[in-house]
Amino acid sequence: MGKRAARSRWPGRWAADHRGDSGARRGLRRHGLRGRGWVEDVLFRRPAGIIEVYSVLADTQSGQLRSRGIPFVLVDPNEEPAHASPSVGATNWKRGLSATRHLLQLGHRRIVVITGPENALASRARVDGYRTAMETAGVLVDRDLVRIGDYRAEDGLRHARELLRLPSPPTAVFTCNDALALGVYRAAAEAGLSIPDDLSVVGFDDLQ
Questions:
Q1: Torsion over CA of 152, 178, 118 and 112, rounded to 10 degrees?
Q2: How big is the chain by its Cα radius of gyration, in Å?
Q3: Which helix (H) or strand (E) holds 74?
Q4: Is the pTM of this model over 0.70?
Q5: Contact 114/149 with Cβ under 8 angstroms?
């Protein structure tokens, strides 16, 4: 049977399993083996390889994988990865820049950015792109319009509710992932606003 990708119970981790999708998903989804860390949980399933997203491997964890001969790669790690850990990154700064420039070209100046965690390198790069776009357009970045989230819809909802109650509310929002954008959509609906007529929203990623 061919290898398939199965998601683990630990968010942001995928393991290629030899036994096929259905069996791997049952073991690797949210209800893993009690008392095990995620590495032990995945190793128990004998994966062919691991893709680690928005995280970073401790030396002990990477050592466990290497000792078993299991290849792995980090995608958009939250911290600078160890030299021996292979990693790839999205064009976070460039996409943050282009998303904000798009909103500026539409005529917006009160543009919010709702970020991911402060320690997430990918989120910080997206915010840097936002700041660069604003500054090169000669638009002052209002500190009240830079909000820190955690890549969750609840954060987008909470921040958008607060922002839309401001005396001078934003006319556009750039969120550092699509889950945050979903929260903004809900807040806009609660406020009786139409997207994009009353509020423009751009989210990063491609949530299905």
A1: -110
A2: 20
A3: strand 72-75
A4: no
A5: yes
